Structures are given as structure tokens and as C-alpha cells.
Amino acid sequence: MSDSSQHVLSELGFAVSQADADLVGEASIIPEMLVPGSPRLRTSILASWADHLSGLLAVTVTAPLVPVTVELDVHLFAPAPGSGTMRCVAKALKAGRSVFMASVAFTSGDGNPIAVGGGSFMVAPDPSLRLPPTLSLNGPPPVQSLRVPLAQRAGCERREPGVAVLPRSDDGLNSSNTVNGGLIALAVEEAALSLAPGATLSSLSLRYLRPVRVGPAVATAEVRSGLGQIEVRDAGNESRLSVLATARFFEGR
């Protein structure tokens, strides 16, 4: 069983370190991180790592105020590996008063390019939100690793073809006390993949319109000619639209 006091995404074993002005993240790929029925790492996990590293870089500019994700994207050169080590480097592109932007690059343990992406952030509208005064950019990987498939750990369920539901849980929140954007990427991926059996995502782009405050987050996908369009709504908050996303697929890989 997982420790509910530990954040869901911390169980992915993502270790972060500083390299001059950049941030570097590394993790070992384990079977629980793979797309169900596929030997490939989930693209949503790459998105969550990109969000995490980019968000930490944003913190260096916005602290003590909390940055929130506005846009997030990941694009793979080829289907992701299913084992070995994944390395991610995040670089600041724009560090303005209102908007922060970062790029991310993923490589395998032996240095082969896997994916590129980026994240955009703004300061949370609620000025009462504050970051912990002891927040550190460096830290060892968590002792505990993911013991069940990620979707099961997060409670994300495919309710029907094209629909995935992610509950709001205390161990799946962000610094704004709303549903973590990386976990929302998981719900988006699950909704899209439910309409494309045997496929994995080659590209994932998310636009965060408003936070999922109440939950559950309900992701609804439509797929045409290999392009998925996904809406995420906060079911407990009048089903307000929270995220718009697009996804493309590696067919049958």
C-alpha cells in the first residue's frame, strides 16, 4: 500500500539538482510508469516532470508568491523507452514580472534525445498564497517508489470510451491547494488513450484555464485522424472548464 501522506508524483522517484542556472531531473523508469498494455513510458509522466522542473525554476522568480501553470507541452521524437534512466533539463526562457517561461529537454541515460517541451507560469491570483520559506531546489529521490500503476495510485479511472475521471485527493494537490497539473495530464492521457487502444502519445499540450478546486476532474476526449481534443472540467464546481488539451499518437507502437 502507498503512504497517503506522500504526494502521488513524489513516488515517481524524480531527483532534482541544480546545474548553474538550470535544473536537472533524473529518474529510473519502472513498470508501474508504463502505458497499460504497452512497453512505453507514459507521456503524461514526462509532462508532470516538465511541469515540476519548470515550476521550480519559476519559484526562483516569484517566491514567496506561488506560480501556477498556464501552458504545458511535451513532444516526443520517437516512442518513449520502457526501462533505463530518464534525464530532463529545464532552462528559463523568460523571467518577467507577470509571466515565466521555461524549456525542457529529455534524454535517455545514454544521452539520446527523447522529447522536448516547455511550460508557462503566472503568479497565482490569490495573494494570500505563499510558498514554504524553506523550499529547496535540491533533494534526493524519495525512498518510497510507485508500487502500483500510476493511474491506479492516483485513482484515475476510465469510466467509458473517451472519459477519464480523476478524484481530488490530499496527496494530489499543488501549492495552490488545487489538483496538480501533472495529474491532470494523466487524466487527459487516459481519456485520449481509451479511444486509441495500443497507441501511446507522441505529443501532449495543455492549456490551464482555471484550477480544479473541488473535483473530480473529468476529462472528455474526441479523436479524429490521429488528433485528440480533450476538455477537463471540475465536476464539483458546476462542471466549469478547467483545461483544454490536444494529443497526437504513435499508432501501434
Describe the protein's architecture and organization.
- The chain is an alpha+beta fold.
- The protein has one domain: Acyl-CoA thioesterase, double hotdog domain (Porin), CATH 2.40.160.210.
- It has 3 helices and 12 strands.
- The longest helix is centred in the first third of the chain and has 20 residues.
- It is globular and about 45 Å long.
- The mean pLDDT is 92.
Q: Gyration radius, to the nearest Å? A: 17 Å
Strand fraction equals 35-45%
Provide the number of structural domains: 1
What is the CATH topology descriptor?
Answer: Porin
Q: Which strand order spans the largest sheet, edge to edge or round the barrel?
A: 1-2-4-5-6-3-9-12-11-10-8-7
Fourth CATH level, the homologous superfamily: Acyl-CoA thioesterase, double hotdog domain
- Cα-to-Cα separation, first versus last residue: 32 Å
Please state the average pLDDT score: 92
| CATH architecture heading | Beta Barrel
Alpha-beta classification:
alpha+beta
Helix count, per DSSP? Answer: 3
Which sheet architecture does the biggest sheet show?
Answer: 12 strands, antiparallel
Keyword list:
253 residues, alpha+beta, Porin, twelve-stranded antiparallel β-sheet, 3 helices, 12 strands, 15% helix, 38% strand, globular
